[in-house]
Design brief:
ArtM/GltK/GlnP/TcyL/YhdX-like; transmembrane helix; 234 residues; cell membrane; amino-acid transport; membrane; 82% helix
Amino acid sequence: MFLVSNLLFTITNGSGNWDLIVRALWPMVEGAIKYTIPLALVSFLIGIMIALLTAVMRLSSVAIVRAPAVFYVSAIRGTPLLVQLFIVFYGLPSIGLTIDPLPSAVIAFSLNVGAYASEVIRASISSIPKGQWEAGYTVGMTYGTTLRRIILPQATRVSIPPLSNTFISLVKDTSLASLILVTELFRKAQEIAANTFDFLLLYTEAAVLYWIICFLLSIVQEIIERRLERYIAK
């Protein structure tokens, strides 16, 4: 309660604070438009492709195919995202691989999303009744054709809600990219706060912007889920 009252006092204490909020708004929004949202989108799309491949490998009955996928998922899920980001940006140069901040962030986020989303996709594929597979085989479809034409379309409907939540979480996780000098939304807030020393005010403003972005994304998620419900038998 004390923190909230102190924050309200800080915001309403003179027109100077309002001027700072207004002046800081566009740089933060610009950082979100140029880096935060594109970074999340690109990383998510690449991560989904990695996840699909990993999920199929995890479902394989061949141990030599399944083992690398199991190790990859275990390694990524068992280590912090920040550590993964630092390994890509700060660690790889020690072996001669120097990558710019933005591509480093894309690599780290994509690998992270790929591991978590692969479990969602794997569970979605496993949830489809075996009779669907048998139906595909009965009409002469191969494993790959059955997977592509029958199983994946159904699994997609099942996986949309958890994958949407993964994307929303990724949008928030992009703030970690500020630690490797990607000038996204939170990095802009840090730069402005370093000059004005109004950390509470500016970081709160950044938090509100993240909340607005995630709130809008959650609305889109609900619309997509409602549309998909039309194609689910009840």
